[in-house]
Amino acid sequence: TVHNLSQHMQLHKSHGLILSHPGAGSSTLETTKENLKNTYKAALDYLIKKQQAKELILHGFSLGGATQALGLDGFKFPKDIRVVSIKRQTFTSLPNMARVIAHRLSNPLGKVASLIMKFFGWSLRVDKLSYKLPDHIPQLILETGTDDMPKHDGMIPAEQALSLSRLLKGKISRKKATIFRINTGHNHPLSPSIIKRVVSWVETQLQQK
């Protein structure tokens, strides 16, 4: 919750910016790829130029992970800013996720759903954008599953887990991306033990820069 987040930031003497997607809540913008990307970049500019932030811990949950991937694509950070990227329970590809979900109703419907997403400009490859992220920005991927394999989290199918992407497997093997598997449903809060692991990972990455 926002209250718990506020307490956590006070404990660690940090500040936070909560970003709502265009079209969500009271936002009047249309939900398009371009609006998602521009909104995220505007938030980064605000933190860097207005707030003069020197450390950025970027967290994207579900669609927020895709929005983060879009917003970071091509964004140039000043050399004196330390950045880490966290994506929690997001998907590999939006069209493929639509195909997997619709396929459970019928195979032709799955193919049609994927084509519709691509036709309307939603050919969003989160794995490809994550792979393009510069190696000096450490990536942490949180997904539901066991040590060996991801599993369905109630929203994201196991086959759409980022860790299964051939692109990101290369990053993981070179230790440019880290996977934490969690025993948590899609809309459930993280356990205190997982939060401690994430905090420890973040602190380690920031200290290495």
Give an overview of the whole structure.
With 209 residues, the chain is an alpha/beta fold. The chain contains 8 helices and 4 strands, in the order ααβαβαααβαβα. It has helices spanning 2-11, 33-50, 63-72, 94-103, 107-119, 126-132, 166-173, 192-208, and strands spanning 55-61, 82-88, 139-144, 177-182. The protein has a 4-stranded parallel beta sheet, with helices on both faces. It is globular, with a radius of gyration of 17 Å. The chain starts with a helix and ends with a helix. The model has no long low-confidence stretch (mean pLDDT 82).
Can you give keywords for this protein?
209 residues, alpha/beta, four-stranded parallel β-sheet, 8 helices, 4 strands
Oligomer: single chain
Q: Can you count the helices?
A: 8
The separation of the N and C termini measures: 30 Å
**Structural class by helix and strand composition:** alpha/beta
Q: What is Rg? A: 17 Å
What's the pLDDT, averaged over the residues? 82
Shape: globular
**What is the helical fraction, as a range of percent?**
40-55%
Count of DSSP strands? 4
Beta-strand percentage?
Answer: 5-15%
Largest sheet: 4 strands, parallel
Outline the low-pLDDT stretches: none
Give the strand order, joined by hyphens, for the main sheet: 1-2-3-4
Q: What is the element string, with H for helices and E for strands?
A: HHEHEHHHEHEH
